[in-house]
Amino acid sequence: MIRRLHVAAALTAFLAILTFWLSTVSIELLGTESQIALIKEAIAFGLFLLVPALAVAGATGAYMGRGTTDQRILAKKHRMPFIAGNGILILVPAVIYLDRLASRGDFGTTFVTVQSIELVAGLVNLALMSLNIRDGMRLAGHAGA
Question: Which of 5, 64, 112, 122 is deepest in the core (most CB within 10 A)?
Answer without folding.
Answer: 122
